[in-house]
Amino acid sequence: MQQRLSLNKPTQDKESETGPVTFLSGEQYRVCSGVKPLTRRRKKRFVIKRTVVSLASIELHPIRICTKNKLVHITNHMSVTEMFSHIQGFLGADQDVREDIRKVVQLLEQAAREILTVLQSVHQPSGFKEIPSKCARARELFCTVKTHIADLKTKFPAEQYYRFQEHWRFVLQRLAFLVTFVVYLESETLVTREAAAQILGIEVVREKGFHLDVEDYLAGVLIMASELSRLAVNSVTAGDYTRPLRISNFINELDSGFRLLNLKNDPLRKRYDGLKYDVKKIEEVVYDLSIRGLAKEAESAGDK
Amino acid sequence: MNTRGGDGCPRKKADAAQDRDAGDKPPTPVIAAFKVFQQELDTKHDKYERLVKISRDVTIESKRTIFLLHRVTSVPNAEEILNEAEVKLDGVRQKIGQIAEELRGEDIYQFHRAFTPGIQEYVEAVSFLHYIRHRSLISLEEINASLVFMRTEEDAAETLLPGTHVLTFQVTPSDYLLGVADLTGELMRMCISSVGNGDIDTPFQLSQFLRQIHDGFSYIGNTGPYEVSKKLHTLRQSLAKVEDACYALRVRGSEIPKHMLADVFSSRTTLIDPEEGVV
């Protein structure tokens, strides 16, 4: 792949008429009518110009200039077999990259499972007192996640994020969930996308590199919502009657937030459709508490 | 389309409700954040829809070009048809230029699914034209070479003024492969129809060419994307049809009136077991 990066290599003088043609295998090229035989200086200028065009696979296929008016014949040297082995080269390289990514993603999944195990203990009756310490422990584990993600970034060209996205999409959503959950347990607020990305050691906007896609972040938030509905139930069992009310407020706010989005018929939409059941569940818990006067009792207890 | 239209209505209501809320009290941080997400998602979805639309146009025009090219075998002045096809493909390229415009500064793989069918169809058309002209397989580089667009406010192509920008569209290797796989189907049709016109050489050329492509795909095997292996099956059927046609021509061509040959192939090809294959 790399040896095709021969844009600056001076081509034969005659061919240089065709603009920065590096791959002289075609039969016909449409050549830019305006382009005079390119001097080397020009070519450099052109190359600089082209780097402005951000393109995922620019180094894989060098570009040539062309417009409609003039046709230049270049004889064909490439047989069908050569063409296919050429393509196979791309595919083979692609597979290697995927293989590397998969290995790192496995480590990430392992780390995510560990964090989840730590956080699961908050559902235990004894766990409610330990929430701060559990969160601190989870925060520590996020450091290993950070290093794994840093490793993952080196496995593929930064501008090809979406090409390989399906490999880490699942685990990134899990991680987004874990981050939002930890921050909720700590401060009972919704973590911003920026803060979540920061905890994972990644960017928010695509242009800066490996980033937290907005859909992945939202998916993480939705996973947290169902986790919170579970937490509401368990906190009642553990005798904490105020928490469900706070969770209820929070989830309602989330729900009205999601209502603002115009979701397409995609995985995120499907997940969002589940949010109403979480809302319902929490409302039931709040109802149960209030008809028994437990909510009020808790409130007055809180006032004291 | 319907779903988008359906989405539009509740959205207005939600917006209105939101505006009312906003009048009462300032939006909470959560709501403010979700407003940002709303914008971001809408921009993305709109772009996706636009790309799907262009891609559909590309598909339709490419299909028409292919139909036009099939007429080549039965018309005396083939050159005229080829030129007409060239003009049509220029139109398609302009459309692909629009795709490139949409994708400026974006990750092309983020929206790849929106336009991949159109691009595959374009590859099919352009490689079909190339085969008819030159009897060879167009390379990925050649396809990409014709997808460079100069966008200028004035005619500044020569000087590459700051106002100019070069737009390229890169066909991915897998789109190229899938397009070439589709091409074999067209070649098979061309083979059969050329026999109908009494052309005895073309089927043999075609069968050789198809065999080369088939070998190429076998070489790639399962390293390619999933769709390639699916298309390999169809490819094998097309190849078998063409090979059978050549067989029939060789064995019985001298005995049977030419206009009946086509019937001979069609009755033969039905006997082919689809599971039968080399690999």
UniProtKB/TrEMBL annotation, chain A:
It comes from the Eukaryota. One of its GO terms (molecular function) is sequence-specific DNA binding. Mg(2+) binds at residue 227. One of its GO terms (biological process) is RNA metabolic process. Pfam families: Translin. Residues 1-20 are annotated as: Disordered. CDD domains: Translin. Keywords: Cytoplasm, DNA-binding, Endonuclease, Hydrolase, Magnesium, Metal-binding, Nuclease, Nucleus, RNA-binding. SUPFAM superfamilies: Translin. InterPro entries: Translin, Translin_C, Translin_fam, Translin_N, Translin_sf. GO terms for cellular component: cytoplasm; nucleus. It is found in: Cytoplasm; Nucleus. Residues 1-10 have a biased composition (Polar residues). Its main location: cytoplasm. Exhibits both single-stranded and double-stranded endoribonuclease activity. May act as an activator of RNA-induced silencing complex (RISC) by facilitating endonucleolytic cleavage of the siRNA passenger strand. DNA-binding protein that specifically recognizes consensus sequences at the breakpoint junctions in chromosomal translocations, mostly involving immunoglobulin (Ig)/T-cell receptor gene segments. Seems to recognize single-stranded DNA ends generated by staggered breaks occurring at recombination hot spots. Ring-shaped heterooctamer of six TSN and two TSNAX subunits, DNA/RNA binding occurs inside the ring. Belongs to the translin family. This is Translin. It comes from Scophthalmus maximus.
